[in-house]
Amino acid sequence: MAPKKKFTKEQVIDAAFEIAKKEGMDTISIRKVAEKMGSSIAPIYVNFNEVEELKREVMKKIIELSNQLLSEENSGHPFQDIGVASLRFAREYSVLFRDLVMKQTEYLSSYDEDMGHGLVELMKGDSDLEGFSKEELMTIFFKMRVFTVGLSVMVANGLLPEEFNEEKGVELLNSTATDVITSARLNKGVVD
């Protein structure tokens, strides 16, 4: 009898992530992961008690990926970087993006809260946003998130004209951000 293949927890997560990336989170199953790895289901159950536990780990990997994409943006304006990273995630990982944005699942329950607070902290370092309180930054972030998610949905679903490239996306994000920030300053009674 041939010895059983041993797989690390990370290898199992990576295989499940590849399935989610192509087919969505809902398609992950123990059997499908085993097939992807070329093994029986036993090595998966060595690392995970149930598929839900594995899906939670895949969700953590997706959050790490979105944080990595954000860290790769370095315009000197964190607020812009957030939008550009969102558009990039939508373009490069459209299936995962649709899972995150268009389906409310238990795996995403803390995603919005964790990401939102972290991104608002990042926004505090943007010179364009000086003078705003945390509450005001949360409002600005929410308004831009509504716009960015809408634009990202269009990117992920191929709904934009072919000539709409990343450069035009950045221009549109910047223009809208300027409008939102100017409006917030006007509402505060402070205009540059």
TrEMBL record:
Q: HTH tetR-type domain spans which residues? A: 6-66
Q: Where along the sequence lies the DNA-binding region?
A: 29-48
Sorted UniProt keywords? DNA-binding
InterPro entries attached to this UniProt entry: Homeodomain-like_sf (IPR009057), HTH_TetR (IPR001647)
Annotated protein name in UniProt: AcrR family transcriptional regulator
Q: Which organism is it from?
A: Lederbergia wuyishanensis
